[in-house]
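Open question from group meeting: does this chain pack into something compact, or does most of it stay loose? Before anyone orders reagents, we agreed to write out a predicted structure and look at it together. Recording both the input and the output here so the notebook holds the full record.
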Amino acid sequence: MARMKIKTIGLTLALCFLAAAACLAADPQMGTWKLNETKSKITPGTLKNTNVVYSSMFGQVKIKADGIDANGKAVHTEWSGKFDGKDYPVTGDPNSDARSYTKVNDRTLTTSNKKNGKVTVTGRIIVSADGKSRTVILNGTTPKGKKFKNVAVYDKQ
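Structure tokens returned:
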């Protein structure tokens, strides 16, 4: 009887992991993305993410990004939350302390960055139909009050 329970629990856990892996594979946003600088148009003096990793576990999404800040220094940002339009803390970004993402459809997200409760950047993230690239369009204001529009194109790794 105990042996049967252990087998059932083991099988249930295996199915849960397979289901989680299937969900991860099904979301085109997930994975590692590298900036394609030749296809991108980034305003000088704004944050430039060169490598971004989206991962998901148990309904939570984690986004880690490495890049260069407005002063040319290396920066590492991290955000964890859900694509539900609610603000979640972001670390490592000198221009924002909270970020929200909203899922528009399977290939599109909208985002909003805030600093001290004030929206500083809004944007749209679109994965191509073939899933091999994504375009991030950001509109915002620098800490010095200068308006900008960045179009960053990333290739899936």
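Observations to bring back to the group:
Confidence is low (pLDDT under 50) at residues 18-25.
Helices lie at 2-26.
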